[in-house]
Give the backbone structure.
Amino acid sequence: MSDSIDEYFDAALSLVKSAGNLITEHTAGCKLFELKSSDIDLVTEIDKKVEETLIGGLSEKFPDHKFIGEETVSDGGKCELTDAPTWVIDPIDGTMNFIHGFPHSCISVGLMINKVGVAGIVYNPILQQLFTAKKGQGAFLNDKQIHVSQVNELKKALITFETGTSRDVERYKAMLQNFQLIVSKGHGVRSLGSAALNMCMVALGGADAYFEFGIHAWDIAAGAVIVREAGGVCIDPAGEPLDVLSRRVLCASNVELAQELTQNLVQFYPERD
């Protein structure tokens, strides 16, 4: 199995690096975009081209593999996870950033086999940040091994947090309550505008935890592998095991910090993928 995962990973990494060139052509921003579910849920032609490049290349090399891609699902495709090797792809995580020229967006590619994450690639080509991990082999930034922090208390923790891409009133209410909680009880709050990069900051030890309600499988599949391989935990915000289709995630540097957050967060349950 490990030899197969290595083969799958190497093929994906080559395609991700190639697709990164599509993003770096627009480092000053991409002003042509369309609206999806709301006026803050956006897509560009570059999102679509990156996804086509990745799915096309991987399906040609591994015709029996399955795919869950953000733009494919947005266009009516199924978000279905089986035991088959499945690539979970966000062609540009942080599209709002990409449109504005804010240099925190990335390609996120996770591989799941038997519904378990076994490899993750998160690549910010603008800042040349390449986060990678394979199950049981550690996590890396540009080939240098990384590890989560040792912070285990909310009062000492730097938390990454997002406002999301939905105008849903109940989700928005919970988000504001949780923002107030983190500001009052935590050490600080940061927001990169990309779920995958927020998770990678936890893996790197630059942030101590990240949570969000309303994200999708393609936002977190790669990041979950990277966080865990860096020594962190990735669970449901209520403390249950992570379900990548639940649209809920909490990752932290350790179990103690994760548990403190689960005991304090206001919960919200979006409609599942």
Remarks:
- The mean pLDDT is 93.
